[in-house]
Amino acid sequence: MGSKPVEDIIESLSGVHFSGFHLNGLQKINTKVEQQASVAESVHRQPFVIGVCGGAASGKTTVCDMIIEQLRDQRVVLVNQDSFYQNLTPEELTNVHEYNFDHPDAFDTEQLLLSVEKLKHGQAVNISKYDFRTYKTDVSKPRKVNPSDVILLEGILIFHDARVRDLMNMKIFVDTDADVRLARRIRRDTVEKNRDINMVLDQYSKFVKPAFDDFILPTKKYADIIIPRGGDNHVAVDLIVQHIRTKLGQHDLCKIYPNLYVIQSTFQIRGMHTLIRDAQTTKHDFVFYADRLIRLVVEHGLGHLPFTEKQVITPTGSVYTGVDFCKRLCGVSVIRSGESMENALRACCKGIKIGKILIHREGDNGQQLIYEKLPQDISDRHVLLLDPILGTGNSAVQAISLLLKKGVPETNIIFLNLISAPQGVHVVCKRFPRIKIVTSEIETGLNEEFRVIPGMGEFGDRYFGTDDE
Ligand SMILES: Nc1ncnc2c1ncn2[C@@H]1O[C@H](COP(=O)(O)OP(=O)(O)O)[C@@H](O)[C@H]1O
Ligand SMILES: Nc1ccn([C@@H]2O[C@H](COP(=O)(O)O)[C@@H](O)[C@H]2O)c(=O)n1
Ligand SMILES: [Mg+2]
């Protein structure tokens, strides 16, 4: 390898980076679909689970409906604790007015746990709807509940069992005055459930009120958020939805590594990814949409540079207090695919110096740095390291190690890429906890050939058009 000229190596670069599968035949991709799907299943994103508790008729369902309505662009499912009411024995059915529907034992909590755990792990479950008239859960055809981004768990005793509470990422208690709850309950039970008002009042004083005091109210302390006035409280619901959106926008890895930034996904961004990941996309379109995405990543990365305050006078003679760009910066591209990001960086930072690093994989010896050309004063600069794909993290570790050896402080390095495999993120973030990584999507993982999946193929070949047969 030592005798091979740099140009030859650049020519034969497909396979240098562990990034994306080679486009050497769709058959290869097809035979791997099953395996990729199983990997995808095992590393699926954890849904955000929200528990909504409160007394009967406090407005739990109403609050859930409001959240679902506001999150209509997300996949949200509502799981009602009512669906896990135990079926009554014939004897209990005969004396149904003596049955305590507000006691924790009235629910099949083991079944509820099983269902929610399955949903959390990305599996669909069948959940029956509870029928308040027949007191049965199995009368109607069970509803197939698919795994979703958000799971709302609603019920009077949903905070009672610690194991169920532990499945929740957020706990909401709907706090509505007892008289309002009673008034609503009377209306609901007499009108919707066709029950006799005396029975409703009897049930309330015998079971509902004592159970509220003994089992429901004591779980209010577990709530992260208490909503007074239930569905009338639009401000509280708006804040909750905002929080859920922030959490959904964050990849689980961002919670582990605070220096990992995944740019906020939009349908435009998803659309661009769809195009560049499609093996059928033409070179022209690939370059066009990759450039758009790269520009977004670069702009986001620049946002992490330090700034100084600056005041200017506007044409109206007013003072505008703004900021001045960081001047001491440079780019470093990892040849060859990283060079695809240089134009976007130049377009954003006029006259920016851009250095280059070439890393090659040789046999089983791992990555080898074989070429570097960096600005002499690089140790005084903030460095934007450019490589569109973070796969195993081996190339990134080589590149970052070189920068550190050149005296660049770890905190001055911002690594920009289009897609990152979790494995690469772990490797880089653990080894260099103070660098920043900015990416536009986190991948499912790596296949057995260490290629990123779902990935987008050999980026350099597709971008520079060297993947033609
Ligand atoms: N803010 C509100 N104003 C008026 N009626 C309401 C309000 N919130 C809920 N309700 C009514 O009260 C009843 C109980 O509300 P619901 O959301 O089903 O409570 P829960 O799920 O806690 O039992 C329903 O008939 C609903 O239409
Ligand atoms: N067969 C049943 C089952 C339950 N209840 C009452 O429903 C209340 C819980 O439902 P929410 O929608 O209000 O959360 C609870 O207070 C039970 O008493 C019932 O009346 N009949
Ligand atoms: Mg309800």
Automatic annotation (TrEMBL):
<dbReference type="GO" id="GO:0016757">
    <property type="term" value="F:glycosyltransferase activity"/>
</dbReference>
<dbReference type="InterPro" id="IPR000764">
    <property type="entry name" value="Uridine_kinase-like"/>
</dbReference>
<dbReference type="InterPro" id="IPR000836">
    <property type="entry name" value="PRTase_dom"/>
</dbReference>
<keyword id="KW-0418">Kinase</keyword>
<dbReference type="InterPro" id="IPR027417">
    <property type="entry name" value="P-loop_NTPase"/>
</dbReference>
<comment type="similarity">
    <text>In the C-terminal section; belongs to the UPRTase family.</text>
</comment>
<dbReference type="GO" id="GO:2000904">
    <property type="term" value="P:regulation of starch metabolic process"/>
</dbReference>
<keyword id="KW-0342">GTP-binding</keyword>
<keyword id="KW-0511">Multifunctional enzyme</keyword>
<protein>
    <recommendedName>
        <fullName>Uridine kinase</fullName>
        <ecNumber>2.7.1.48</ecNumber>
    </recommendedName>
</protein>
<comment type="pathway">
    <text>Pyrimidine metabolism; UMP biosynthesis via salvage pathway; UMP from uridine: step 1/1.</text>
</comment>
<dbReference type="Pfam" id="PF14681">
    <property type="entry name" value="UPRTase"/>
</dbReference>
<dbReference type="GO" id="GO:0005525">
    <property type="term" value="F:GTP binding"/>
</dbReference>
<comment type="similarity">
    <text>Belongs to the uridine kinase family.</text>
</comment>
<dbReference type="GO" id="GO:0044206">
    <property type="term" value="P:UMP salvage"/>
</dbReference>
<dbReference type="GO" id="GO:0009507">
    <property type="term" value="C:chloroplast"/>
</dbReference>
<keyword id="KW-0328">Glycosyltransferase</keyword>
<feature type="domain" description="Phosphoribulokinase/uridine kinase">
    <location>
        <begin position="49"/>
        <end position="235"/>
    </location>
</feature>
<keyword id="KW-0547">Nucleotide-binding</keyword>
<dbReference type="InterPro" id="IPR006083">
    <property type="entry name" value="PRK/URK"/>
</dbReference>
<feature type="domain" description="Phosphoribosyltransferase">
    <location>
        <begin position="265"/>
        <end position="466"/>
    </location>
</feature>
<dbReference type="GO" id="GO:0004849">
    <property type="term" value="F:uridine kinase activity"/>
</dbReference>
<keyword id="KW-0808">Transferase</keyword>
<comment type="pathway">
    <text>Pyrimidine metabolism; CTP biosynthesis via salvage pathway; CTP from cytidine: step 1/3.</text>
</comment>
<dbReference type="GO" id="GO:0005524">
    <property type="term" value="F:ATP binding"/>
</dbReference>
<keyword id="KW-0021">Allosteric enzyme</keyword>
<dbReference type="InterPro" id="IPR029057">
    <property type="entry name" value="PRTase-like"/>
</dbReference>
<keyword id="KW-0067">ATP-binding</keyword>
<dbReference type="Pfam" id="PF00485">
    <property type="entry name" value="PRK"/>
</dbReference>
